[in-house]
């Protein structure tokens, strides 16, 4: 057996470079030992009458880097396999629930898995979204009637937390309750207490609402996004389609390359799950990557731009305060958060407080207007066990708690 393994190693280690055949051997394995093992292997094979042929598949052709999108308004989208092809033993079903206040009948999707033999089928949570729809057209605007009805009522605020605090069960809450197989009143109660969120920008009408919280199913986020050197609008939409097909509950667009606005627009119009962003990334691109050129006005305009498109939640590193930054000086791995490091650099350059913290109430007003949820980014999180639980980390956590309470006061 040892001879067979050695011969296989020897044979598979022969390569050709510039027309010269060269053999590579593992450490401590000389060419003489390899030759002896190979002779022993061949002798055993001939004696037993066995014939063995080792063949190797040719290397796959090098994939060409896809060119950047030529026309952002008319991308050349990639084909996607159907739901049936991805899940040959499943069917996409819907259960209907009626929203009593509005009379709207909600069709909540789920995946029914059919087992072999006489075994009963079972139902799974489904995130794949509407099928067989061209990305050029975009997904159906599921929530349009829901949002229009509430705006016609003239309510001063439109956030899910606001309605939950008023004792009102919205269509989104009912939808989430049906997906999770829970009582709608329980969903409302958890949202009202700040223990759960339903990321659902009123501009993201294609959304199939979902809920995130400690008493609900575990949710999975998928990060996507282009860069200055790779990917395109077509590929980013393709990522969204595949991610949601395989069960991603939310996606984050972390694009930093060309056509950020257009890329996000196409993603939102083709995403049935909540879409999040880190707005400081696009704000930084607006100033050509120079953190020192950032300011509150640029950041504010970026928030409004993204909220208008329908972004469901923002990650904002408002807990990185000027006085906390020196606390990271003795760290082994420093500040590992990209957003945190951008804010830290700006603070140190001007020796001023983080503008996201200084304008937190303004940020909350924007989020309240569009019903955008907030993820308060941990910009001073440790990047290693060595740095874990240090003063900088806990200082930021205290500030994040303060910012959370202030957000609840404005129903965000």
Automatic annotation (TrEMBL):
Q: List UniProt keywords, sorted A-Z.
A: 4Fe-4S, Iron, Iron-sulfur, Lyase, Metal-binding, S-adenosyl-L-methionine, Zinc
- Which cofactors does it use? [4Fe-4S] cluster
Q: Name one GO biological process term.
A: thiamine biosynthetic process
Citing just one GO molecular function, the answer is:
lyase activity
**What positions belong to coiled-coil segments?**
none
The record's region (Disordered) falls at: 52-73
Record InterPro entries: ThiC/Bza_core_dom (IPR038521), ThiC/BzaA/B (IPR002817)
Q: What is this protein called?
A: ThiC-associated domain-containing protein
Q: Which source organism?
A: Salix brachista
């Amino acid at each position: 057996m040892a001879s067979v393994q050695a011969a296989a190693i020897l044979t598979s280690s022969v390569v050709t470079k510039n027309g010269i055949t060269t053999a590579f051997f593992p450490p401590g394995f000389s060419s003489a030992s390899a030759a002896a093992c190979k002779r022993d292997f061949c002798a055993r094979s001939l004696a037993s009458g066995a014939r063995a042929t080792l063949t190797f598949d040719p290397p796959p052709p090098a994939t060409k880097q896809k060119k950047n999108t030529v026309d952002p308004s008319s991308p050349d989208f990639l084909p996607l396999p159907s739901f049936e092809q991805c899940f040959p033993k499943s069917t996409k079903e819907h259960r209907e629930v009626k929203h009593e206040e509005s009379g709207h009948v909600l069709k909540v999707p789920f995946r029914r898995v059919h087992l072999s033999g006489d075994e009963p089928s079972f139902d799974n949570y489904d995130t794949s979204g509407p099928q067989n729809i061209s990305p050029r057209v975009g997904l159906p605007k599921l929530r349009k009637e829901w949002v229009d009805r509430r705006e016609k009522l003239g309510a001063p605020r439109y956030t899910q937390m606001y309605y939950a605090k008023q004792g009102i069960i919205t269509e989104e809450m009912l939808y989430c309750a049906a997906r999770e197989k829970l009582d709608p009143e329980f969903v409302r109660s958890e949202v009202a207490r700040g223990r759960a969120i339903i990321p659902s920008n009123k501009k993201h009408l294609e959304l199939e609402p979902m809920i995130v919280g400690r008493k609900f199913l575990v949710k999975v986020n998928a990060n996507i996004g282009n860069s200055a050197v790779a990917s395109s609008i077509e590929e980013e939409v393709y990522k969204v389609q595949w991610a949601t097909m395989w069960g991603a509950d939310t996606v984050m667009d972390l694009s930093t390359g060309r056509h950020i606005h257009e890329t996000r627009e196409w993603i939102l119009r083709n995403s049935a799950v909540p879409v999040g962003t880190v707005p400081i990334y696009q704000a930084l691109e607006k100033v050509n990557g120079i953190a020192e050129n950032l300011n509150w006005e640029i950041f504010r305009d970026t928030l409004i731009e993204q909220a208008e498109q329908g972004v469901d939640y923002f990650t904002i590193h408002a807990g990185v305060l000027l006085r906390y930054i020196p606390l990271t000086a003795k760290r082994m791995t420093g500040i590992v958060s990209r957003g945190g490091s951008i804010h830290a650099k700006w603070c140190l350059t001007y020796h001023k407080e983080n503008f996201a913290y200084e304008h937190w109430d303004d940020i909350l007003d924007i989020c309240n207007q569009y019903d955008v949820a907030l993820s308060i980014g941990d910009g001073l999180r440790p990047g290693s066990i060595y740095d874990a639980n240090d003063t900088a980390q806990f200082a930021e956590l205290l500030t994040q708690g303060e910012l959370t309470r202030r957000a609840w006061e404005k129903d965000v």
